[in-house]
Design brief:
The protein has 12 helices and 15 strands. By secondary structure, it is α+β, with helices and mostly antiparallel strands. Helix 3 packs antiparallel against helix 6 and helix 11 packs across helix 12.
């Protein structure tokens, strides 16, 4: 599983923390215990330097409460990471543990249970612990005595309002059946195509990639719900053929162009798209392995789960070897 977290990452982190056993965290600054609490058995590495405490970037009372609750705490003034481990799940992102982050800042993070990420992340925290200063009762007493003088900017120019929500950022991959079109039938739409391709060209990740498009009609789920940022896996059927011939790997949707009679989705295609494509019969076998049990074919419009998408990506690479 791998997920992108956006909008308010602290909702997801809070739920993970409540379900987990021992929590590990290497996070630069901690100023609140409401977002994420540390207690007995937990490991927290934070910047608790005198400067961080004095400027209010890290809260001595919050660390004191976590210490009394039994958390193992270390301080490292060079720490800038934002890494959290909850059992077998790692969250790596941009957010410090603060109300300012939760209420006013747009944060982002990646959450995954992939061993190739979780294991080295845990080793990283353990190694960092040995390069940090252990926080004991004397350390807590000393930082509690430091007078906090918050930056003048925060004092006199507080945020005007709580951040507005942004649209859901969950990973979405569509498995869709497409057929080759006779473009001569759509000459009267060429001005829309030109306009869409020009706009999509500006959104490509790589100059060497090309822009393709999918034309959709009818009141279908894909036409209504798919949007920029989603990915598509194309079950490709050549012109006049009855059965699919191959399946093309993930392509991101760069632009959605709506018209009352049709919708075009402009996608970014790599130069090696043909090389990475799988024969239709091979793909059907992979689809069964990832739990796509329903019948799929040239008219498929299916929104895949994150687990199916991730598993299929791993199997795809091995199938091409």
């Amino acid at each position: 599983m791998i997920r992108f977290l956006g909008d308010n990452i602290w909702d997801d982190i809070g739920r993970l923390a409540k379900r987990s056993g021992r929590k590990y965290a290497a996070v630069a600054y901690v100023t609140t215990g409401a977002t994420l609490q540390f207690g007995k058995g937990d490991l927290l590495i934070v910047d608790a330097s005198d400067h961080a405490i004095k400027t209010g970037q890290t809260s001595a009372p919050v660390l004191g409460k976590a210490f009394r609750a039994g958390a193992e705490i270390y301080s490292n003034r060079n720490l800038h990471a934002k890494l959290f481990l909850f059992d077998r799940i790692a969250v790596i992102g941009s957010g410090n543990v603060s109300e300012f982050s939760r209420l006013y800042l747009f944060e982002a993070a990646i959450m995954t249970d992939h061993p190739a990420v979780v294991s080295p992340a845990r080793a990283y925290v353990e190694d960092l612990k040995h390069q940090s200063k252990r926080v004991n009762a004397r350390f807590i007493a000393r930082i509690l005595s430091i007078k906090v003088v918050r930056p003048w900017r925060r004092l006199f120019f507080p945020p005007k309002r709580v951040k507005p929500p942004i649209r859901p950022t969950r990973h979405r991959t569509w498995l869709i059946g497409v057929k080759e079109l006779d473009e001569n039938r759509y000459r009267d739409e060429q001005r829309f195509v030109n306009r869409g391709e020009q706009a999509a060209e500006k959104r490509k990740a790589r100059k060497s990639n090309t822009v393709g498009w999918l034309r959709w009609t009818g009141r279908t789920r894909f036409r209504r719900l798919a949007h920029e940022g989603d990915s598509v896996i194309q079950i490709w059927r050549p012109l006049n053929a009855k059965k699919p011939s191959e399946v093309y790997k993930y392509c991101p949707i760069l632009l959605k162009q709506d018209n009352p009679k049709w919708t075009r989705f402009y996608i970014e295609e790599p130069p090696n798209a043909e090389k990475d494509a799988l024969p239709w019969t091979v793909f059907k076998g992979l689809a069964k392995q990832v739990g796509i049990s329903q019948r799929i074919g040239p008219t498929t419009e299916r929104l895949m789960t994150e687990e199916q998408s991730n598993s299929l990506d791993a199997l795809w690479k091995s199938a091409r070897r």
